[in-house]
Write a structure and sequence with these properties.
The protein has 9 helices and no strands. With 210 residues, the protein is mainly α. Mean pLDDT is 75; it is low at 6-19 and 201-207.
Length: 210
């Protein structure tokens, strides 16, 4: 038996990651991933069903924080900290400031409910099913080494982003720039319509009578 034949024989009988590890023997990381996922799912359900706006914003913090923990468990540390800094630290704080500045009701509000609940539930279930199907179909045989080095570090994410996804990244930046310019144009147009010549003359007449 030659050396090549021996190597081929050993390779053929070497168990793969999918063979040595199955769904019936989960690791501690996988159990933690499942528990955090259930908490995140529950927080998301409460966020869209509660009639108190402040409670909805706080439960949204729990849901987004749970997603950050899930990213950490998947060794995507860079995405996890981006989730915390941008969504939890910026978006939710912006929502809370908006609630305070607009003097939104603190208690239960009947206006927070919608008559399109079943339509929204149908769309949400269909979107979730499509997303799960796409993810399972794309990563059916992919196994992540959770005990190895972080696969989602800043270096790995930056190299993948600016080598393989640079064109979609630049297209998205142009789209965001167009949205920013459109928002500025619409705000200036609304301001110009508010200060009409008739309104200016009326204000001068009122000041003259005083």
């Amino acid at each position: 038996m030659t050396l090549a034949t021996t190597a081929a024989h050993l390779t053929a009988h070497t168990p793969t990651a999918a063979e040595t590890h199955g769904f019936l023997s989960p690791t501690g990381v996988e159990i933690a991933f499942l528990l955090v996922g259930l908490v995140t799912f529950g927080a998301a359900i409460v966020t869209v069903t509660t009639r108190q706006l402040v409670h909805a914003a706080l439960w949204l913090v729990v849901a987004l924080g749970g997603l950050a923990v899930e990213y950490l468990l998947l060794t995507a540390e860079f995405i996890a900290w981006v989730q915390v800094l941008i969504y939890v630290g910026s978006v939710v704080v912006l929502l809370l400031f908006g609630l305070m500045l607009t003097r939104a009701p603190i208690g239960r509000s009947p206006d927070a409910d919608s008559g399109n609940r079943w339509a929204a539930l149908t769309v949400a279930v269909a979107s979730a099913a499509a997303l799960v199907w796409v993810v399972v179909d794309a990563f059916r045989t992919t196994w992540i080494d959770l005990d190895g080095p972080a696969a989602g570090s800043t270096e790995v994410t930056g190299a993948s982003l600016f080598q393989n996804w640079v064109l979609p990244f630049e297209a998205l930046s142009v789209l965001l720039l167009a949205a920013l310019v459109g928002a500025i144009v619409l705000s200036r147009k609304a301001k110009a319509e508010a200060t009409t010549p008739g309104g200016a003359d009326t204000r001068r007449d009122t000041e003259g009578t005083r």
